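Issue 218. Parser rejects a valid record. Input:
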Amino acid sequence: MRRLALSLFLLVTALPALADGCPEVLQGTLPMLRDKSQIDLCERFAGKPLVVVNTASYCGFAPQFDGLEALYKNYKEQGLEMLGVPSNDFKQEASNSAETAKVCYKNYGVTFTMTEPQVVRGDKATHLFKVLAAQSSSPKWNFYKYVVDRQGKVIANFSSLTKPDDPDLIAAIEKAIASKP
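Output the parser choked on:
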């Protein structure tokens, strides 16, 4: 009887996720950088190949914004989406969102989606990063990159040292683009 009750509980709690067809990684919302409207992750990214990267305005890896933007522009016509998530987890993010926006949009010309700064590691991490970590690993530093296929599964993750033009990163992006929804 206990087993049946547990099975029913699990089924009922899983129904909303199953009903809307949204993968676990895309459940929830995040505030957009600059206008602070909410991004419904499922609505925006479900069924699309996605690169998620945690960023920091004053990190030595910030020049990777240029390469990430080039990747996004190169593959967006094939459906690629990119989500930048600023974080101060490694103590290198601007103290206010206006400065973060200036670095991203003015200094580097970012056109892909950026959120307000979020926690990306540990118990207080945003749901997105908890799921990314469960499927691969937590970010070890800023500009840690995750490639997510059209089903919402992490197919590869890359360290901060991996440049946006790295052949392995590009291969993972092309694999995500080729994945079936």
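Fixed in the parser; the record now loads. Helices lie at 2-20, 41-45, 64-75, 97-107, 127-135, 167-178.
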